[in-house]
Each structure stands twice: as structure tokens, then as C-alpha cells.
Amino acid sequence: MVTLERAALRLVPLRLRERFEISSGARQDRLILLLALHGGGEVGWGECVAAEDPSYSPETYETAWHVLSEFLIPPVMGTPLATAPDVLKPSAWVRGHFMAKAALEMAAWDLVAKLEGRPLPEALGGRVRPVEVGVSVGLQPSDEELVRKVGGYLEEGYRRIKIKIKPGRDVEMLSRVRGRFPDTPLMADANSAYTLADAPRLKALDSLGLMMIEQPLAAGDLRDHARLQRELATPICLDESIESLADAAWALELDAGRVFNIKPGRVGGLGSALAIHDHCLARGVPVWCGGMLESGIGRAHNVSLATLPGFTLPGDISASRRYWERDLVSPEFELSQGTLSLPAGAGIAVTPDVERIEALAVRTKELSAS
Ligand code: OSB
Ligand code: MG
User: Fold this and answer.
1) Cβ of residue 239 lying under 6 Å from some atom of ligand 1
2) Is the pLDDT of residue 370 over 80?
3) Average pLDDT in the chain
4) Separation of 261 CA from ligand 2 center, angstroms?
5) Which atom, in ligand 1's list, is nearest to the CA of 294?
6) For atom 6 of ligand 1, which residue has the closest CA?
7) Helices in the chain by DSSP H: which ranges?
């Protein structure tokens, strides 16, 4: 039992080493929302994955800042906490805002694990181990550039390559990549850029031996995903469509997808991610851990989650240098034989560079029991 004494929000601008383009748009500058939860002499850290615009999800860092500071954090200040997911109980009435909720819940997991002196993977019910990882490659200016990028990542050791697609940059582009890398585990992510009318085009991808096609259709349209899956040999992987265990269970019942990309931030926290993992593990449905261009703080949570036994496929959890000139944690995450590991230590085990976070922060807020 720990009493939550204080929470600190920080908004930290961080420039990606390379602009990252997906079907809905491109981004080079991130505004990273961090949450530090103080209690029992320790600090737990969480990162909110909400983006700068509401294209991937209805949330943004601004809506998350608002909901965290007005509704999620105040009712837990000065109150005792038995388990990490309990931190969301007083705000169970708040609809949606899964990314805001996840940031608070993940900070609580880190805090509780640190107070217990346990690494986060163990607190989650797993064990510390290296996790196999892949890389998510954005839309490139040309197919040549894409092939060059993919080759570079394979040389670094990434175990699986995900390529962003959109209408007009799909079948021909991926055929060229496949031609150059006949045996590489490849997949595609459309971020909802297609409709069922594009089924013939998506069906043409079947001949390329992709591991899966991620989120081809609209987030809310499980019915059309099920229709599309009936026509495709390639498994559909769902990302944006899944915000809860209920969504995942329903998608499986409809056969709207056969693989899930689990992002703790998108599903409202690690407790929800665990529930989806357990449901899939019991049914032999493969899952992998996705990413949202996080700093090392969010990445440490993702690496911890990915140690659980159902995460049998390499996730979008890449090394710090794939994203940042300099990460916000030490040690930074480095690729070793296609895997990432946490250092030894309690909780997320990596140390946030507090001095740099304070120096970079463009907005701060402190909350405590009144
Ligand atoms: O669809 O998985 C996605 C990044 C931002 C928004 C959505 C997605 C992504 C990625 C990047 O694919 C994954 C990463 O963090 O490396
Ligand atoms: Mg995706």
C-alpha cells in the first residue's frame, strides 16, 4: 500500500531523427507528455502516447493534459493504492481517453514495482528476458529509398520489417521490396487508408507472403474487416480498432482480425493490455507490442509488456537511436542481435534524465492532495 503524494506533468518537445510519414500524414516534431507519480519515497514514470493531432486516435496531448489534470489525477492524490490498476478506479466513470488513463496507470505500475523492488516484467507476471523486435518504416520519397532503408535496418539486426502503405503506394512498392528481400519477415500497415472497395488491390498483396496486413480499414468497422478477411489469405492485424478486451473478444468472434498489435497506451494501460494478452494466449491468437514513437520511458513499459509469453511476434519496439539523437533515459535502448532488454533494476529500470526533462519542458503542472 502506497499513498500517492504528488504528481508532476511535463510536456517535452523532442525532434525525431527522421520525419515519419504514414497514410494520414507526416511528423518530425513530437510533444511528449510525461507523468511522474511520487509516493513512499519513490517516483513512478508514465508516458502518454497521445499525438499532436487527432488522426490516429481522437485524443491529443492537449486532451490528455486536460483529462489527467482535471479528472484522473485529483481523486487519487493523498489516497492509498493497493495495486497499480486501482489508480483508475475513482475515474472509472470517465468515458474514453484511454491514452490519458494509460499514462497514469503505467506510472502507478512503475511506482508499485519500484516500492516492491521488482522489475516491471515480473510485476506484470512475466520474467525479465530479451525481446525480439522489429522496426516500422514510414512512407519514403521513392521505392529505391525504401529498399535502401529496409536493407539498413536488416543489417542492424531487426527481426521483422513493417512498411507503411497507402493507396497508390502499396502493391508495386511492396513487390519491389519483396523482390530484393525474398525471405525477410515483412508486413504492411495502412492506418485505415482503405475501404472495402479496395479489396481487389489488397488481395493482390496475398502473393507477397506478408506476415499480416495491419489496420487496412476504418477503426470502427469490424464488419468490413471481417468481410475483407474472408477474401484475404494474409492475416489481418488490428491496431486502431482495439481499445479494450471487449473490442478484441468481439473482433475474434467476428474473425475481423487474426493478430493484434497491443499498445498499452491505446487500450487504457498495462492492466487492459494484460487482459487482452491473456484472452489471446488462451485462444492461440498471436499478439505483438506496438509503439507510438515514444521516448525511452514509454519504450521501457513496452519492452516490459513484451516479455509476457503471448508476445510471440517481434514488435514495433526499436532502439533509441532509431528515433532520437538523444533519448530521455539512461541507459538508452540498444539493439543486440535483434533484441532489446531492460537493464537490471526495479520498475522500468531505466533512469529518466530529470535534469534534461526539466530543461526541455515547455509546460509543467504539479498536483497534490489539497
Ligand atoms: O500504426 O503502429 C502505428 C506510429 C505512430 C502512430 C501509429 C503507428 C506508429 C508506428 C510506429 O507504426 C511504431 C514505433 O513506435 O516504432
Ligand atoms: Mg498501426
Assistant:
1) yes
2) no
3) 98
4) 7
5) 15
6) 292
7) 61-67, 98-116, 120-123, 143-156, 171-180, 199-203, 222-231, 245-254, 270-282, 296-305, 320-323, 354-360
- Percentage of residues in the chain having pLDDT higher than 90: 99
Residue (of 45, 19, 52) closest to 323 by Cα position: 19
For 96-134, write each residue's pLDDT tens digit. Answer: 999 999 999 999 999 999 999 999 999 999 999 999 999
Domain ranges for the chain? 2-118+351-368, 123-340
CA distance 106 to 29: 24
Which numeric CATH code is attached to 2-118+351-368?
3.30.390.10
The CATH fold assigned to 123-340 is: TIM Barrel (3.20.20)
166 in catalytic set: no
Q: What is the pLDDT of residues 263-276, one digit of tens each?
A: 999 999 999 999 99
Closest ligand 1 atom to Cα of 191: 1
Position 279 scores a pLDDT of 98
345 has pLDDT over 80: yes
Nearest ligand 1 atom to alpha carbon 164: 12
User: Would you list the DSSP string of 249-302?
Assistant: HHHHHHTS-SEEEE-TTTTTSHHHHHHHHHHHHHTT--EEE---S--HHHHHHH
Q: Is 164 labeled as catalytic in the residue annotation?
A: yes
> Does ligand 1 lie within 6 Å of residue 290's CB atom?
yes
| pLDDT per position as a tens digit, 155-178 | 999 999 999 999 999 999 999 999
